[in-house]
Amino acid sequence: MKKIINAPENYTDDMLRGIYAAHPEVKYVNNDLRCYCTAKKVPGKVAIVTGGGTGHLPLFLGYVGEGLLDGCGVGSVFQSPSPEQVYEISKEVDAGAGVLYLYGNYTGDIMTFDMAAEMCEMDDIKTQSIVGADDVNSGAPEIRRGVAGIFFMYKAAGAKAAQMGDLDAVHAAAQKAKEATRTVGFALTPCVIPEVGKANFSLGENEMAMGMGIHGEPGIWNGPIKTSKEIAEESLKTLLDDMPVAAGEEVAVLINGLGATSIEELYILSNDVSSILKEKGISIYRTYVGEYATSMEMAGASISLCKVDSELKDWIDYPVNTPFYCQR
């Protein structure tokens, strides 16, 4: 294992200390580094809280900031935060309009946020919850994992909250983005969890895994590495079979690197995705290329489509400013 660390067991907390030292616009509460919050609370605004394991930057905490989220519970690598941490964050960021919990569809996270919501209820803090579930290859809609496509849910909910929508309206915005978003991902290499010290799965030298999850969950097939165009064709077929998009309709495209894929490769993939969509008569409203939801140093990528209308376009275009992501 070759990593720039001090001690594997301190990986998450050392990372957080570095973020707080570099970015005074965020803070932690309750003397707990893992209770990550914005330092710029807006009175009367619905607060949005997310959470999940370390190892996915900028997901999850990287989207805490102006125009997006207000707090994030930080777990150890690929582990859920505790209900108590999410509860303490909720108390800190609640500005009188309630709190929306927005997180990925994983059993540990669901338990954490459900328990935090019960604790908030005892303090008369109103909460609502919604889970991202965009990973098409991970199963039926109700059990799908939440992966990079949660970015569009963050954008929609964050914009509606910044526009001072009430809790129901912010939840509805996130729900609309959820229903309009699908993702397909693939891995070329495993990653190494610092506390474990070895790869969390294995792939051959010239092998890839289609549908691999961001924690190393098995995909739908392992086989020889395909070309970028072949990957784009298969991925788009899967996406469009699950969420049909007619010629003349518009999508936002997210080409996401999983941690060890060069930006050059992502742009090659982006070009192939764009070409295929244009051949189908599908218009591209906006394309995002980069790292939005990683898996430590896993090589690979994901492709997300968000079918947009005028309302979703406005939310996607809303300006944001966080330590990890800015849009003007």
Describe this structure in words.
The chain has 328 residues and is an alpha/beta fold. Helices cover 32% and strands 25% of the residues. The protein has 8 helices and 14 strands. Strands 1-2-4-3-5-6 form a 6-stranded mixed beta sheet, sandwiched between helices. The mean pLDDT is 97.
H/E order of the elements? HEEEEHEHEHHEEEHEHEEHEE
Total helical segments: 8
How large, in whole angstroms, is the Cα Rg? 19 Å
Integer average pLDDT? 97
Biggest sheet, in brief?
6 strands, mixed
Instruction: State the helicity in percent bands.
Output: 25-40%
Provide the β-strand percentage band: 25-35%
**Overall strand count:** 14
What are the segments in which pLDDT stays under 50 over at least 5 consecutive residues?
Answer: none
End-to-end C-alpha gap: 39 Å
Question: Which term fits the overall shape?
Answer: globular
Assembly state here?
Answer: single chain
- What would you call the structural class? alpha/beta
How is the largest sheet built, in terms of strand order? 1-2-4-3-5-6
Which helices and strands occur, and which strands form pairs?
Elements: H1 11-22, E1 26-29, E2 32-38, E3 47-54, E4 71-77, H2 83-93, E5 99-104, H3 107-122, E6 127-132, H4 150-162, H5 167-179, E7 181-187, E8 207-210, E9 221-224, H6 228-242, E10 250-257, H7 263-279, E11 283-290, E12 300-308, H8 310-317, E13 320-321, E14 326-327
Parallel strand pairs: 3-4, 3-5, 5-6, 10-11
Antiparallel strand pairs: 1-2, 2-4, 7-8, 7-12, 8-9, 10-12, 13-14
Helix pairs in contact: 2-3, 4-5, 4-8, 6-7
